[in-house]
Amino acid sequence: MLTESTNMLTKKATEIRRNIIKMIGAAGSGHPGGSLSATDIVTYLYFKEMKVDANNPKWDERDRFVLSKGHAAPVLYAALAEKGFFPVKELLTLRQIDSKLQGHPDMKKVSGVEMSTGSLGTGFSTSIGMALAGKLDKRDSYIYVMLGDGELQEGQVWEAAMAASHYKLDNIIAILDNNGLQIDGNIEEVMNPYPIIDKWSAFGWDVIEIDGHDFESIEAGFKKAKETKGKPSILVAKTVKGKGVSFMENKANWHGSAPNKEEVDKALQELQA
Amino acid sequence: MEKMATRDAYGIALAELGKNNDNVVVVDADLSGSTKTSVFKKEFPERFFNIGIAEQNLMGCAAGLAAAGKIPFASTFAIFACGRAYDQIRNTIGYGCLNVKIAASHAGLTVGEDGGSHQMLEDIALMRAIPGMTVIVPADGEETKQAIVAASEYEGPVYIRLGRPKVPMIFDNSYKFEIGKAKLIEDGNDVSIIATGIMVGEALKAREELLKQGIKASVLNISTIKPLDKDAIIKEAQKSGAIITCEEHNINGGLGSAVAEVLVENCPIHMERVGVNDIFGRSGKPDELLEVYGLTAKHIAEKAVNLINKK
Q: Which keywords appear in this protein's UniProt record, sorted alphabetically (chain A) (predicted)?
């Protein structure tokens, strides 16, 4: 990959992380941990990978991104704003009474949000429906869907995983944000979803392991996924919950707590482009 | 009298719709032979998706197909659609206001021998509690066919409740179904029988029995439970001053509750609810079940007489 492109992505990701901290800080509630772990992948998707047009959000030929781990809404909102779907200043209205930026993504309210999510497992299923429609219409576009690793505990995920390989949906690329933590602690301790790789392989998916914070690894993963034909692909991305903010990293208690003013300032000092 | 199951009418209507609209797709959960989506599957295999025994994913896939511009009809038994996949209907289809048509068969007691675990008696309550959800309960085959077309032309989530057994044909093709409009089938001033689904046929039989006793009952078919035709209900209340609701559903939360809500806010009068009295069903033949649970013309007529005496 060109260094220039990596630099651009690094800058965008830092800006998105800064906005995640600012918006959750202003809201006084929200989910920073899983938003920060997903940031580099979401940044790559919107600024390198996907065909999307902020001026024509309903463009028929677009790629679609479904955030199945809907509680990471701040990273999606920050990326959409950065991409021009709506003004960046609106981010600071997150979770407020008259805001379109709901606590979890609402497709009726926000331009660029492809599916309302929040109840875990549901978004993943909808991506299967979108991919089926894409096959019917013979569209040259992809459905990207991001799941959390705790989300794998939902039975619906496996119903959908079975359907995607049954229908040979090679136009769907799932990304697992494997940060290893959920609200109550380590995923292995709460309800162990491992071995994750074996499970997805057994369900008929092409499984690609990547470093979810390394743009070259992310790029290679998507490239390989697109070369896979006749079955769906999943990028199992090793990530760090709270990535980029030292005091949030690898701490389950930052799953769903907002930083106070002091913590916001401290985080923003660390997040310099 | 000619008879037809509403699920059979659905199968025929769906296949016809498939011819006229390329965007219509069907998802089913391993019950296509029973829900009658098999008729569509035979004609349009490329637009039919069997999701397997996975109702949560069934509703999710339907939502995704709708988001991508298709008009999906999602079918399974009512117990699995509204029970197993309530969250997916509420949080994905309802909350996203997606253009999914949930056509659920085998609703109510008349599933029969499969028993209480399969007899969905709460679906009307669950579906009408979801904001923006249109809820349709056709009375016969003709109304079903027209409701399927109307649902496909309407933009937004729709729940259509279908039954397993053959039921009398009440309407012919001169009838015009419209979402949100009740239909006065028979007029009368003494008591108003408001019925939905297969109970419309029983209501008409009850009217005949009442006529023998010199009582003139009107029969109002409410096939759209939501949005409810409030004007038609208020008109009946003002005319007869006595209303009986009839539904193959728990008396809590269904048609009876919906009508009671309208009456209490507009013109409180005497009313009675015919329905399953807040208990689960059990195995038996459909006719036996309707008898045991008090859902026959005889029960409606008895309640009508009691009600008139209270006026």
A: Metal-binding, Thiamine pyrophosphate, Transferase
Q: How many domains does chain A have?
A: 1
SS3 B253: coil
Distance from C-alpha of B82 to C-alpha of B52, rounded to nearest angstrom = 17
pLDDT in tens, B19-76: 999 999 999 999 999 999 999 999 999 999 999 999 999 999 999 999 999 999 999 9
CATH number, domain of A61, equals 3.40.50.970
Residue B88 is nearest to which of A106, A122, A127, comparing CB atoms?
A122
Domain boundaries of chain B, sorted by first residue? 3-168, 183-310
- The residue among B3, B41, B2, B299 whose CA lies nearest residue B164 is B3
At the top level of CATH, which class does the domain B3-168 belong to?
alpha beta
Q: Please, which residues have CB within 8 angstroms of residue A186's CB and are 6 or more apart in sequence?
A: A180, A252
ipTM greater than 0.85, yes or no? yes
List the single best residue of A59, A62, A102, A122 to mutate versus B (max B Cβ within 10 A): A122
Please tell me the distance in Å from B67's CA to the nearest CA on chain A.
7
pTM of the model: 0.97
Q: What distance in Å separates residue A107's CA from the closest CA in chain B?
A: 6
Q: B65, A133: Cβ pair inside 8 Å?
A: yes
pLDDT tens per residue across span B217-268: 999 999 999 999 999 999 999 999 999 999 999 999 999 999 999 999 999 9
Query: Which residue in chain A is spatially nearest to B84 when comparing CA positions?
Result: A156
Instruction: Identify the domain containing residue A220 by its residue range.
Output: 4-271
Q: Span B183-310: which CATH code?
A: 3.40.50.920
| Three-state SS letters, B18-76 | HHHCCCEEEEECCCHHHHCCHHHHHHCHHHEEECCCCHHHHHHHHHHHHHCCCEEEEEE
Q: Cis link prior to A232 (omega < 30° from 0)?
A: no
CB pairs under 8 A between A and B: 108
